Amino acid sequence: MTSTSTTTLSTPRLVIYACGAAFVVLLASIPAFAGSYLTSFVLALMISFVLAQSWDWVNGQMGYLNLGHFAFYGIGAYAFAILLTRGVQIVPCFAAAIFFASLAALLVSLPLFRLKGDYFAFATLAIVPLCELLANNFEGLTKGSEGITLPPDYVLVPAYILAALLVALTLATTLWLMRSRFGYALRAIRNDEQVAEVAGVRLFPYKAATLMLSAAFAGLAGSIQAWQFSYIAPNTMFNLGVALVPIAGALLGGSGLLLGPLFGMVLFSSLEQALLVKMSHLREAVLGVVIILIGRFLPGGLLRAKWISRHDLLSWLSRESHFEIGGHRHATAGERLPLVHREVDTDRIVLECQGATMAFGGNVAVNNVSLKIRQGEIVGLVGPNGSGKTTLFNLISGIYRPRSGRILIEGRDIADFRADEITRLGIGRSYQIPRPFAELTVRENIAIGRTFGASKTKLLESMRTADIFANFVGLGGLLEQKAELLSLQQKKALELARALAAEPKLLLVDEVASGLSTVEIAAFVKHIRDIRDQYGITIIWVEHIFSALSQVVDRLIVLDSGAVIADAPLAEAMRDERVLTTYLGHAAGEAK
Amino acid sequence: MSLLKVSDLEVSHGPLQALWGVSLSVEAGEKVGLLGANGAGKSTTLGAIIGHYPAKSGRIELDGSDASRLDVSQRVTRGLGLVPEGRRLFVEMSVRENLEMGAYLSAPRKKLAQSLEHVFNLFPILKEKQRQAAGTLSGGQQQMVAIGRALMSCPRLLLLDEPFIGVAPLIIKDVMTALTQIAAGGITIVLVEQNIHRALEFVDRAYVIENGRTVLDGTRDQLLNDKSFGSKLLGLD
Amino acid sequence: MPLDIFVQILLNGILLGGIYALVAFGLSLVYGVAHILNIAHGTLLAISGVIASLIYLVTSWHPVLIIPLIVFPVFAFGYLFHAALLRPLASRGKHDETIGTVLITTGALIAMSDITGFAAGTQQRNIPVRSEMLEFGDIILPMAQIWILAGIVGLTIALHFYLKYAWFGRAVRAVTQDPFGATICGVNGPRARALTFAAGSGLVAVAGVLYALIYPVDPYMGFSLTVRAFTIIVVGGIGNLAGAMIAGLMLGVAEAFTAFLWSPKWAPAISVILLLIILVVFPRGLASWQKT
Fold first, then answer.
1. Structurally, how many domains does chain A consist of?
2. Of the candidates C173, C240, C215, which has an alpha carbon nearest to the alpha carbon of residue C21?
3. pLDDT band per the 50, 70, 90 thresholds, residue A547
4. What is the CATH number of the domain that holds A570?
5. Does one domain contain both A358 and A485?
6. CB A583 within 8 A of CB A389
7. In whole angstroms, what is the distance from residue A238 CA to residue A241 CA?
8. Which end of chain C is less enclosed by CB atoms within 10 A, N or C?
9. Which CATH number characterizes residue B197's domain?
10. For position A587, what pLDDT does the model report?
């Protein structure tokens, strides 16, 4: 780590700051020279932007499509209005708006985050009508459909200033999310939730906190709007047609991009305003058609359109934000990995399975498997396709729970442990079909493994040392490459690096060598040996390529139809008649 | 004229190219193996032959005429049948409904009763369990349903993708016997199989696919005598 | 509660629940086959109901004649809507596809409601058929309700048998359970998806006419029905007609009694609250609920 290395976002900082400063100055000066019509339009636009951007933290960063976001806006508005009309001071009223909106988010996140994908989206859509119903029915509190009239003070300018501050805070929060550990947890969840959990991200707190954060901003936005409107009613605060406008705006601009929601919302609000002026009927129909067209023709949003991403001056708008390290630090070949050396005590048992059984429907995938893995061993796990090797790995890493039997890690039964806890106990793994976080770079993938795994290294430090791990597996030149663009073998190498970076005690390697050349296999075998010899990490290696296994494993466990049919030192297992007939076959034997 | 002829087939999954040049030909009545390491491209080859993956370049011919532009149902009509990896049964439908779905297209629909009887003769256990939901069967029985379903379309060429995965060792023999009977009945077979021993015992000749290319082919003896066979098979080159 | 009132409320609940179930059938089939959660689904009911009411107002034809007049155009509309707007999304990644369908179906909801409101007015309408009364002691039932009930039952049974025994019905189930498996049997996936979307739309149009015979409809009321239908398929299981029917009846009866015993204004809350409770009680989500 040289002192010259700096961390930057890929979007040129100067441009962002210059534009940001100009933008803020322009924004702040509007009430001074513009009339109340323009001022209130810009105020409404700023409120919509805050809604769009805070919604996009959940969608663009975390990958959850929340269609009920507008409800938090309404809840904030109602909390504010109810308290204000009862004579409460203005500041506690705003605080209450934030509090109740986040509280509502916490309450709904318990049931809603049981769902994923389409189901989540659909269930969240029920929130807005539910809130409208509650606002209509709790007449004592909300005055029902009659609505609440606020004290008739002229608050346009203070509301405007407050909204402008909120806009600045929203942009700052977005920037923070794009480069913080918290934000990387969300992007890991978006890319592959199960892999994120196995990498050590505890899912629910992150998901709930993100929803609460976005709700807090929406609630405050709602309260500012209510303050300025001075009248709110259920059918305006929880109107479905209006509810989707910020979402459509964010998607129009480009979800997940720093300036996407801002651009989209400005365009969409301008269109809305133009329609308001030009048309007396069918305004909503036109907006509906516009929303349809966005859905049909703009999958990534306007800022990701080709004519922008390929334009010399505009392309920075469509660039995704990725962590890059400035300066010229390159890990040297053979540099020691920043892992602590574990003293190997070969009498200690790292992993024990006692009669572990797992079935899917009529298929018993893992059948009464008992085995012990000692510290410092390299164990080969072999068997034909479908013999239960990967299922066994899934049981050990906590993706499945055994139907019966127990699994102990260093003597602790993991029955009640979540996958992320098991990872922090020191279990690392790769996947047979590689599952890197596709939209993140090699560096980011490795750093996520490191910062959320057993090593618990800080994000910045993890990003800085990622190159050593990348070099180790031969990806040194591809640090800023997106994982989805890697070849199959490179993805497998990346998974090994990600698992290793987490500082595991026991590494589960699932088929890394297939498709490698003889030279590459020899190099890989050396890695496996180094991992054990230099860092004291115990390894279970699932592999079909026998010549690779035979160079390095101490012991072979053979599975067939979910059951252990041999568990013996390599040479002995190779002579076992059952092993030869059920798995290897003559040809493979000869190939060896 | 070959029943199936594949020349210089290339296929991509999104940004990743899976096949880089697969060429093979299968004559009527043959049993042909497709061997290679995991991830070499065997399943993709079968998927492209049946028309599930579009060919990026190259040609697929059936009975000498180009079939590259046909969709799956047209290729099934022309006599292809696939027993896919992972079986892909309709798990909540009964065994019988699964089999009948195999005769969905108009030509096989007319021979439904006959085909059903043929399948029940091959796999008597399926007749017993015909009312049971397919998802509740054991792995071996599910595999029988998958093979039976493919037979219901009266194929001339049956493509089998690792039909022994998740099948108990004792049942593997039964399935193997059934496949031999199917072949004896005049149906041409292309078999993707991991267990080389088992595969070479069954097929007349085989192709080896390595990193998305066909790199070797020959009869059982030719392959076993080829020095590079082992390393190509395991993708060691 | 006197028996006659109890029976009357129960019957109302069953009728309402039966219509909810019809709405849910369409949503469920379309989701199962095409993975499209059609947010505008209930809005199609509302618009079909409004148009049927207008036709009745002008012509006074028997509702049985009005049904085909509505259903066939809605079927065709559904087919075209799918082909032009939804089918092209299938080539996108999963999350982008979800976003696309949500935007398109929501945009359609907003546009269809607004256009209908503009053309036909925003007021509530219904089909005010005259009906004889049947008397069983204290219990008085309008004949029309009996016929509607019979229509719902008949439609459900027909649909069930179609899915169970017809070739295309089976293909629809096959695509729901394993699209690739269905493809290699020769099922044309895109065509099955488009036809199912059209059929789901046609079904909800029938429900719309039946609904307007009992309750008032307006162009904006559709979304609350979509929410109810979603609750029903979560409870009853995707593609499971019997489950959807039972869940629909339960919901309808619960709403009817809530409206009577407590207050009509709380009845619509039941579906959402039920949905949230189920999600909490069955923490592993829908899969475990459906399998147990």
1. 3
2. C240
3. confident
4. 3.40.50.300
5. no
6. no
7. 9
8. C
9. 3.40.50.300
10. 38
Asked whether the predicted pLDDT for residue B132 surpasses 50, the reply is: yes
CA distance A15 to A22: 11
**pLDDT of A581:** 61
**pLDDT value at position A3?**
36
Question: Does residue A500 sit in helix, strand or coil?
Answer: helix
- Burial class from Cβ neighbours inside 10 Å (0-12, 13-18, 19+) for residue A426 reads buried
Interface pTM, i.e. ipTM: 0.91
Instruction: Please give the pLDDT value at position A101.
Output: 97
Q: Which residues of A touch B198 (CB under 8 A)?
A: 585
Are A233 and A361 within one domain? no
A226 and A361 share one domain: no
- Give contacts of B82 with chain C, Cβ < 8 Å: 184
CB–CB of A77/A237 below 8 Å?
Answer: yes
Which of A238, A259, A286 is the endpoint of a domain? A238
Question: What does the pLDDT look like over A420-459, one tens digit per residue?
Answer: 999 999 999 998 888 999 999 999 999 999 999 988 899 9
A442 is in which domain, residue-wise?
435-503
The candidate with the shortest Cα–Cα distance to A117, out of C239, C93, B213, C91, is C93
- Place A121 in a pLDDT band, splitting at 50, 70 and 90: confident
The single-letter code of the amino acid at A295 is G
What pLDDT is recorded for position C292? 33
What mean pLDDT value characterizes chain C? Answer: 89
Least CB–CB distance from A561: residue in B91, B169, B234: B169
Answer whether B86 touches A (CB < 8 Å).
Answer: no
pLDDT value of residue C290: 44
Identify the weakest region by mean pLDDT among A207-216, A512-521, C212-221: A512-521
Q: Which pLDDT score, from 0 to 100, does residue A88 have? A: 92
Task: Give SS3 for A454.
Answer: coil
Q: Tell me what the mean pLDDT of segment B190-213 comes to.
A: 88
* C223-247: b (≥16 Cβ within 10 Å) or e: bbbbbbbbbbbbbbbbbbbebbbbb
Residues A444 and A409 both lie in one domain: no
List beta partners, residue C135: C140
In a domain, A200, yes or no: yes
Q: Are strands A7-9 and A323-325 parallel, antiparallel or unpaired?
A: antiparallel
Q: Kindly state whether residues A470 and A583 are assigned to the same domain.
A: no
A293 found inside a domain: no
Contacts of A386 in chain B (CB under 8 A): 139, 162, 165-167
Strand order in the sheet with A349-360: A363-374, A349-360, A404-409, A412-413
Residue to mutate among C28, C183, C184, C241, with most B CBs inside 10 A, is C184
Grade residue A7 by pLDDT with cuts at 50, 70 and 90: very low
Which two structure tokens, joined as six digits, stand for A263? 């651009």
Res A588: pLDDT: 40
Residue A319 to residue A441: CA distance in whole angstroms: 13
Domain boundary, last residue among A503, A522, A549: A503
Chain B residue with Cα closest to A511? B38
> Is A154 part of any domain?
yes
Q: Which residue blocks in chain B are alpha helix, DSSP H?
A: 42-50, 72-77, 95-101, 106-110, 112-122, 124-128, 139-151, 169-184, 196-202, 220-225, 229-233
Instruction: Count how many domains chain B has.
Output: 1
Return the closest-CA partner of residue A295 out of B126, C142, B136, C107: C107
SS3 C47: helix
Q: How far is A276 from chain C (nearest CA, A)?
A: 15
Asked, for residue A296, whether it belongs to a domain, the answer is no
Q: Which domain holds residue B28?
A: 4-233
- Let me know: does A113 contact A63? Beta carbons within 8 Å: no
Picking from A135, A65, A77, the residue whose alpha carbon sits closest to that of residue A101 is A77
Closest C-alpha among A405, A394, A113, A101 to residue A237: A101
Rounded to whole angstroms, the Cα distance separating B194 from B203 reads: 13
